[in-house]
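Feature request, filed as a ticket because there's no other form

It would be nice if the structure record came with a short human-readable summary line next to the tokens. Right now we just get the raw output. Example of a typical job, pasted below so the devs can see what we mean:
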Amino acid sequence: MRLVIFDVDGTLSDSQLDIIGSMTDAFVAEELTVPTRHEILGIVGLSLEVAMPLLAPEVPDATIDRLVAAYKAAYMQRRLDAGAAHSPLYPGVRDLVEALAAEPETLLGIATGKSRRGLVALLENHGLSGAFQTIQVADDHPSKPNPSMILAALAETGVAPDRTVMVGDTQFDIDMAKASGIRTIAVSWGYHPVTKLSHADLLVDDATALRKAIDTLT
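Raw output as currently delivered:
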């Protein structure tokens, strides 16, 4: 058996407009200076409780808590308003996931900074709810790059680290995977520049190349 673990935002789905818009709503509600697009995308992948203090380092904890709550509320409302158009999948991703899921020797997993509620809604929206055998979310683990999510996925599936690969778009994904002793594939279409992904085992530019990379490393 082999295990392929995917990040979500910036790897499977393009949710940057919702992330930036929701972060903007949260900061405006607190009458704070809104972070730049570059700053917001730079924290994608981290749990909100870790990411928010990086964007607003000088505000008290109580304000951080309100920012987190406001972001979650704004993001959920955007998801409800957008319906099927919310967080579209990147080109080729659906075919890749469905092809891998159909292989008896391949298990699929998710390791994401999203909440379980948000992830479940996204997977249902795209008809991929049954594709993943292990799902690790921010609700249950320390933030990336702590290896907790990967270690839990390995324990749940029983797949060996040398038969497992992590696919992600941020340095947090790559650092998390390396801390857990598994191989890594970085995708260039996500939210961190490729200059931050040079420590990945492989870097790919499209879904076809990603499939080849997965087969190469596992």
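Something like this underneath would help us a lot:
Residues 170 and 193 are 8 Å apart (CA to CA).
The domain at 16-84 is CATH 1.10.150 (DNA polymerase; domain 1).
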